[in-house]
């Protein structure tokens, strides 16, 4: 997707000027199994986007998803360095580094950190109200940090495929965070919500509270599993099963109860995984803004109501929050990640109001170094 800034009145609103897409090939559960196929598919999408936008694409923002994407929360403590006990940026950096050092090796081995997100600060054991500790006075600073990571080999292969297609990767963003920029409002992030991206082969979730992500996880199950179940259960071709799943084929050709049972069974499996994760982090039934559904699989008709009853949370399909108070339905929820990437790419350098954008801008140098390390 190619975007540019349009400026009606005094607001900057991203405007989509071109799109390109291609059939996903060479991927399994979000990781590459055939590098050449993936590069060809990326190249095809790029050429189409260049044609529709009339723009030569040299750089791109890249989302990372798949089963290699995960997160861990870690806590680190440092003594305040200044004689007057005032917390400095250096102290904050030291607390973040201490948090990073505390990550168990069993989790960090073969992984790369792609986002470092402070969740909470404590000074002398007391919680800091707000997101900044700099300037306050204390003897000890403690940081609770969410680290979003990707498997190093998966990240290397994906970046290599994009580079082989002739495009330089400017930034790497976790797909659930990119989607959250255009599907969740600030109020939803503050009171507590979970964004679930129902992809073809994976389901990714990110949980927000107090306007920051507190957990992110990916599960190796997706809407393709529903298609496969329908094909097996009704003994029909996969292409026909896909159209039935999305409601494109209606009528009495197939027994409705059997079809509903097949779809509901697999959706229940997905929702059970989400519920288990919410229980693990102590947020089961405790997110007032509920679950927001996006991704290609979110269009399944019974999903919204089933999620509400299974998770005991408010449930709805995502609508796009493109800029400020402007809201409009996402015509195809599978594009929400790409919309988010466009927003990151077009954000002003000093924009800190939207979580994720500020992180991406600050991390740009780090990501470029990471890319150089990963590529031969």
TrEMBL record:
SUPFAM superfamilies: Actin-like ATPase domain. One of its GO terms (cellular component) is cytoplasmic side of plasma membrane. GO terms for biological process: cell division. Keywords: Cell cycle, Cell division, Cell membrane, Membrane. It comes from the Bacteria. Residues 1-183 form the SHS2 domain. This is SHS2 domain-containing protein. It comes from Candidatus Taylorbacteria bacterium RIFCSPHIGHO2_02_FULL_46_13. The lineage of its organism: Bacteria, Candidatus Tayloriibacteriota.
């Amino acid at each position: 997707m190619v975007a540019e800034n349009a400026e009606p009145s005094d607001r900057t609103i991203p405007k989509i000027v071109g799109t390109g897409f291609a059939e996903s090939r060479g991927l399994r559960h979000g990781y590459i199994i055939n590098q050449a196929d993936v590069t060809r598919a990326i190249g095809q999408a790029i050429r189409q986007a260049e044609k529709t936008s009339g723009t030569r694409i040299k750089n791109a923002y890249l989302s990372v998803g798949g089963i290699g994407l995960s997160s861990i929360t870690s806590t680190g403590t440092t003594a305040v360095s200044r004689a007057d006990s005032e917390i400095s940026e250096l102290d904050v950096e030291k607390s973040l580094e201490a948090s990073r050092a505390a990550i168990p090796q069993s989790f960090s081995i073969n992984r790369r950190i792609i986002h470092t997100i402070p969740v909470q600060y404590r000074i002398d054991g007391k919680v800091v109200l707000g997101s900044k500790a700099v300037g306050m006075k204390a003897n000890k600073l403690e940081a609770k940090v969410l680290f979003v990571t990707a498997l190093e080999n998966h990240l290397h292969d994906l970046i290599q495929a994009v580079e082989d297609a002739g495009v330089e990767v400017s930034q790497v963003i976790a797909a659930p965070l990119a989607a959250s920029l255009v599907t969740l409002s600030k109020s939803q992030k503050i009171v507590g919500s979970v964004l679930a991206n129902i992809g073809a082969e994976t389901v990714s979730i990110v949980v927000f509270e107090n306007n920051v992500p507190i957990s992110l996880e990916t599960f190796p199950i997706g809407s393709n599993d529903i298609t496969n179940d329908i094909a097996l259960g009704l003994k029909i071709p996969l292409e026909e099963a896909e159209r039935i799943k999305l409601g494109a084929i209606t009528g009495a050709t197939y027994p409705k109860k059997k079809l509903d049972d097949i779809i509901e069974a697999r959706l229940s499996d997905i929702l059970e995984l989400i519920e288990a994760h919410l229980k693990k982090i102590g947020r089961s039934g405790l997110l007032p803004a509920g679950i927001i559904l996006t991704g290609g699989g979110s269009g399944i008709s019974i999903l919204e109501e089933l999620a509400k009853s299974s998770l005991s949370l408010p449930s709805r399909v995502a609508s796009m929050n493109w800029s400020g108070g402007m809201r409009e339905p996402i015509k195809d929820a599978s594009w929400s990640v790409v919309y988010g990437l466009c927003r990151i790419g077009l954000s002003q350098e000093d924009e800190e109001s939207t979580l994720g954008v500020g992180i991406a801008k600050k991390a740009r140098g780090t990501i470029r170094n990471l890319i150089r390390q990963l590529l031969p």
